Amino acid sequence: EDVEETYIMVKPDGVQRGLVGEMISRFEKKGFKLTGLKLFQCPQELAEEHYKDLKSKSFFPKLISYITSGPVVCMAWEGVGVVASARKLIGATNPLQAEPGTIRGDLAVQTGRNVIHGSDSPDNGKREIVIPFLCNKNILSVYDYSRFLIC
Ligand code: DAT
Ligand code: MG
């Protein structure tokens, strides 16, 4: 298998609930390499770009307002087969269907609050990683998250 890179994002509920370390720890223990990390308040237009494949879905507006509701932790993880392996560590989209032992299976209940994102293909990994890491927009003036270091 190839060395790949995937985009992992701890969603706002995961950050607010203090689960960032727990989630990072699972990827570290598995043996993957952290190659990028950023606390980020995602602007609406970048959230829409990230989830552009879901634009036609009825839940799209709720999804965008959720993902922009607070800081997210954006990460790039590298390793052999990391894209599919990270999806296994994360578990099913609906946390009630996610197996115990997976991140969503252990830490979440609702699909709309499923604490973490992981790319579904190497191409989407490449596409998604650049969204937060190339953004230089200073949003501190828009959101009062001054205790966080953003952008
Ligand atoms: P995943 O995050 O497992 O890759 P996805 O790409 O199909 O799942 O959808 C992206 C996110 O959108 C998902 O994490 C939660 C939300 N979502 C998906 N299906 C949903 C639904 N039926 N109702 C509400 N939110 C949904
Ligand atoms: Mg997806």
From TrEMBL:
The chain holds residues 79 to 229 of 236 of the full protein. The active site is at H117. ATP binds at K11, F59, R87, T93, R104, N114. This is Nucleoside diphosphate kinase. It is an enzyme of class 2 (transferase). Residues 3-141 form the Nucleoside diphosphate kinase-like domain. GO terms for biological process: CTP biosynthetic process; GTP biosynthetic process; UTP biosynthetic process. It comes from the Eukaryota. The keyword Transferase applies. Its cofactor is Mg(2+). The keyword Zinc does not apply. Belongs to the NDK family. Keywords: ATP-binding, Kinase, Nucleotide-binding, Transferase. Its EC number is 2.7.4.6. GO terms for molecular function: ATP binding; nucleoside diphosphate kinase activity. It catalyses: a ribonucleoside 5'-diphosphate + ATP = a ribonucleoside 5'-triphosphate + ADP; a 2'-deoxyribonucleoside 5'-diphosphate + ATP = a 2'-deoxyribonucleoside 5'-triphosphate + ADP.
